[in-house]
Amino acid sequence: MTAEWTTAAPAKDRRVRRSRAALMRAAIDLVDARESANIPVSDLASAADVSRQVLYLQFGDRDTLLLEAALDLVRRELLEPLTRLPDGGRASTLALATHFAAHRRFYRAMLTSSSAFALTKALTGLFVPLNRRYASLLLTDEQAVDDLAAFMTGGAAALVNTWVVEGPDPLDPEEFTDRLLRIHPAMAARR
After folding, report:
1. Higher per-residue confidence, 6 vs 19
2. CA distance readout (Å), 180 to 21, 46, 152, 184
3. What SS3 string covers the chain?
4. Which of 4, 166, 170 has the alpha carbon at shortest distance from 73?
5. What residues contact 34, with CB distance under 8 A and at least 6 apart?
6. pTM for the structure as a whole
7. Could you report the per-residue pLDDT of 46-100, keeping only the tens digit for each?
8. What is the CATH architecture assignment of 66-188?
9. Distance CA 165, CA 162 (A)
10. Cα–Cα dist 23/102, whole Å
């Protein structure tokens, strides 16, 4: 992937942005390689070529680093492309399935770690606005739109999480996309 590593840090210092990006890249690489989120801070710092102190200054702790790395990965490789695709169609659903299948080892490790709840909650926050656009086509009451968007996001998250963690190797994004799209008419029936 050629996407640039980003940082959520408000800091303008180039060195801070570079060290944050290096730490997030190291976090994804090590979690993926070891298939575990239980990576020692010293290993993360060493892989990023920074001190442990820099990791603590930038993120506070390992779990925050892992969460920020996962969110950065989703923002860079999934959310940005999704904004260019039609809402709720095959292309956007396949993009989602392909992303999670491509990074399965990383996400499986994260979703079976102590960071699973925080990751799922943060990802929900990223995806609810996308699902809200679709929900607003089906309903007019703002509270109902918000509720449906949250319901759709939570339900999809449960299916994606189970697929990533328990699905057969290798994951088949096409088959999973078809599976998700088979339930799509039930949502649109309200319209």
Report:
1. 19
2. 33, 41, 11, 7
3. CCCCCCCCCCCCCHHHHHHHHHHHHHHHHHHHHHCCCCCCHHHHHHHHCCCHHHHHHHHCCHHHHHHHHHHHHHHHHHHHHHCCCCCCCHHHHHHHHHHHHHCHHHHHHHHCCCCHHHHHHHHHHHHHHHHHHHHHHHCCCHHHHHHHHHHHHHHHHHHHHHHHHHCCCCCCHHHHHHHHHHHHHHHHCCC
4. 4
5. 109
6. 0.88
7. 999 999 999 999 999 999 999 999 999 999 999 988 888 766 688 989 999 999 9
8. Orthogonal Bundle (1.10)
9. 5
10. 21
Residue reference for tokens 């996962």: 70
- Kindly state the tokens that stand for 77: 């490789």
What six digits make up the tokens of 101? 């299948």
Amino acid in the structure at residue 84: R
